[in-house]
Amino acid sequence: MVVPTTSSLETVTDTPHPIASSTNDVTVAPTLNTTEKEVYMLAQLEDNGKCNLPCWWGIIPGFANWLDVSMEYAQRGFESSQLPNGNTFGIGGFDLTSISTYTEIVFTVKQNTVQNISISATGALKPLEFQKAWEYYSPDKILTKYGQPSRIWLDVSTYGNSNKAGYEYWLYYDNLGFLIIYGGSSQMKTNLNICPSFVYGENIQEIHLYLKGSNDLSSLETLVGNDFIQTRSRQLKTFEEAAGKPISKYFDNFLANQKNICFDTPRNIWP
């Protein structure tokens, strides 16, 4: 089990509550209707199911039994299906249709144990409601709760005639076993001001989470996909390259004032 390190602002005291093993008696809630499922999902999103990343809603990668997980969700009305490569499974039904938020969850399974989990959520149609539902996973909250990231990557696209530049803000926690990517936009200027925060309005509309167990020695890039990383290698830049300062200084400034999550990057270094 991976236990998060302590940040200078907050002591992490949550402990994971894994879905029970099949050797135990399990009391499973009856199948939920659409409204009840949304209530359930919003409650889980509020505190990540009372466990710390890379645990996801009580499911600990490297520990959780896949049959238990799939059965638990099936009896709540969430159905799993095997994906083409054989050892990955998707569970459907996690969309929050009342706020036009759409979510995909994929589990990689080996020897009936969940090895890693990938979650993608988008809320472009109602970004403020999306951000409210996913507030626990906002950059501000993640930096405060889990401390200084081991790495930060950035990708910015200035293509087209729009007055906005799209960006991806990658927060790596290699020591804990998770990566979280945010997709947003910034006003097109000579120096792009990137503000990856929910408090600055509608600029973040996507969140992607990649979680792995403590026994998985592969890199977090493997979860995203090495081929994907290689095709993006000319675009992705380290935070130091993009912002011209070390992560440690950026993080210290954030601790001093959470409005300092914003930073500038020159437009001319991006395609």
Low-confidence stretches: 1-27
Q: Encode the helix/strand succession as letters.
A: HHEEEEHHEEEEEHHEHHE
Number of helices: 8
> Average pLDDT across residues?
86
Spatial strand order of the main sheet? 1-2-3-4-9-7-6-5-10
Question: Main sheet, how many strands, which sense, barrel?
Answer: 9 strands, antiparallel
Task: State the shape.
Answer: globular
Protein architecture, described:
There is one protein chain. The protein is of the alpha+beta class. It has one domain (34-269). Helix content is 24%, strand content 27%. It is built from eight helices and eleven strands. It has a nine-stranded antiparallel β-sheet with strand order 1-2-3-4-9-7-6-5-10. A two-stranded antiparallel ribbon has the order 8-11. A hairpin with a 4-residue loop joins strand 6 and strand 7. The longest helix has 14 residues, at 34-47. The relative contact order is 0.14.
How does the SSE layout of this entry go?
Blueprint: H1 34-47, H2 66-74, E1 80-82, E2 88-91, E3 102-110, E4 113-122, H3 127-133, H4 139-146, E5 151-157, E6 164-173, E7 178-187, E8 191-194, E9 204-212, H5 220-224, H6 226-232, E10 237-238, H7 239-243, H8 247-256, E11 263-266
Antiparallel strand pairs: 1-2, 2-3, 3-4, 4-9, 5-6, 5-10, 6-7, 7-9, 8-11
In short:
This protein has 271 residues and is of the alpha+beta class. The chain is built from eight helices and eleven strands.
List keywords for this structure.
271 residues, disordered N terminus, globular, nine-stranded antiparallel beta sheet, alpha+beta, 8 helices
